[in-house]
Specification:
Layout: E1 3-8, E2 14-24, E3 27-32, H1 38-53, H2 67-81, H3 86-100, H4 110-122, H5 127-146, H6 171-178, H7 183-195, H8 199-203, E4 211-212, E5 217-220, E6 231-234, H9 237-257, H10 281-290, H11 300-311, H12 316-323, H13 328-334, H14 339-348, H15 352-357
Antiparallel strand pairs: 1-2, 2-3, 4-5, 5-6
Helix pairs in contact: 2-3, 2-5, 3-5, 7-9, 7-11, 11-12
């Protein structure tokens, strides 16, 4: 039977930190709990006795590991394994860091995690965003468990997410919005509309060397995409013509500035002239307002490309290769069915029911 106690100094004064005494393999073990709270010390003792009874190894420092150490372990894991982009992980860790800072990692239980969810919802975060953060916390907990820094994994209850966004562009909406963008942005938009490539990380980052007009191809390098896989697409004639004109714009800018410009979509004017364009949010917001499409997102172009390819009979496997979707489940979320699609079903089924009822009735066959 174990016990908790406080060590006394030479003058007989009791210390502030609780210690535990328990027996392992018949031998007494004395260990500091690192806490001044009696309840935490008793829990520490109970955990130690439980591991001894189960024949499990004693985990040193397990009750003194703080959140910061576990979070740093996770960051190091992502950096060394490349399992996740560290910049993406940092956006999720930022909120976790603020809430769980200075807490003993072993005290992060289901109740506390539920409080975190409530706090984030109070901040206005969407449940989908919260669930991505909880997934990062879950990976952190599992890594700590694997490293012997956590005794047990808490249950994480994720809030229910809303259905996936259903936004996409009909052809007339795409043309209307496109008219209100500068010619170079029209070319960038055309790539996203045709192939479903991500605007900021895959289209605007393109360099001229990735465009081969002679072969009629456009490629994304391995390691530059979200799933780290490269992609090669063949350009339809209209898009090839648009990119040929865009290439001439860049060459003209090179002659004007007297230097090489590697980017396919640089700033053509203004204070950043010649530098790679990283975004065009203001231009996008203005264009969608003028087109009467205030709710449209650039990511809707990705859903549009998936829908268009499937509806044109392109196999889902090929379409997934073009867009860069690795799993069928995510790809299916992007394949949006519109009212026009449903009306097309009705058109194709015209006469079907008539054909069924026109046949001989069961009674006539008797």
């Amino acid at each position: 039977m174990g016990s908790i106690y406080k060590q006394r100094s030479r003058d007989g004064t009791a210390g502030r930190i609780w210690w535990v005494k328990y027996y392992a393999n018949g031998r007494p073990v004395r260990e500091s709990t690192g806490t001044e709270k009696e309840a935490e010390a008793r829990r520490f003792l109970k955990e130690r006795e439980g591991r001894v009874a189960a024949g499990q190894p004693i985990l040193p420092r397990v009750d003194r590991i703080r959140y910061e150490e576990a979070a740093q372990d996770l960051r190091h894991y992502y950096q060394t394994t490349g399992a996740r982009d560290i910049k993406e992980a940092e956006t999720r860790l930022r909120h976790l860091d603020l809430f769980f800072a200075q807490r003993r990692f072993g005290t992060i239980e289901t109740t506390l995690i539920t409080k975190y969810v409530a706090k984030r919802q109070g901040d206005g975060a969407q449940n989908g965003t919260i669930n991505r953060e909880l997934a990062t916390l879950s990976r952190m907990l599992k890594l700590a468990y694997e490293n012997g820094k956590l005794v047990r994994l808490p249950v994480i209850h994720k809030p229910r997410e809303n259905g996936p966004r259903q936004g996409f562009f009909e052809d007339d909406q795409y043309r209307a919005l496109r008219r209100h963008l500068a010619p170079d942005l029209q070319a960038a938009l055309a790539i996203a509309f045709a192939f479903g490539w991500r605007m900021q990380s895959e289209v605007l980052t393109l360099e001229r060397r990735q465009l081969d007009l002679e072969a009629g191809t456009l490629r994304l390098e391995t390691g530059t995409t979200k799933n780290d896989e490269g992609r090669l697409v063949y350009l339809p004639p209209d898009l090839k013509a648009q990119l040929a004109v865009q290439l001439e714009r860049v060459r003209a800018l090179e002659r004007e500035l007297g230097r090489i410009i590697p980017s396919l979509f640089p700033h053509l004017s203004g204070p950043y002239q010649g530098q790679r364009r990283r975004d065009f949010r203001r231009a996008w917001m203005t264009a969608r307002r003028k087109a009467g499409l205030p709710g449209k997102l650039r990511h809707d172009l990705r859903r549009t490309a998936v829908r268009n390819m499937v509806n044109k009979g392109i196999s889902e496997r090929v379409a997934m290769t073009v867009t860069g979707h690795k799993t069928r489940a995510v790809f299916d979320r992007y394949h949006i069915v519109s009212p026009a699609d449903l009306k097309e079903v009705a058109r194709k089924l015209t006469g079907i029911t008539a054909g069924i009822t026109a046949g001989p009735s069961p009674d006539s066959q008797s």
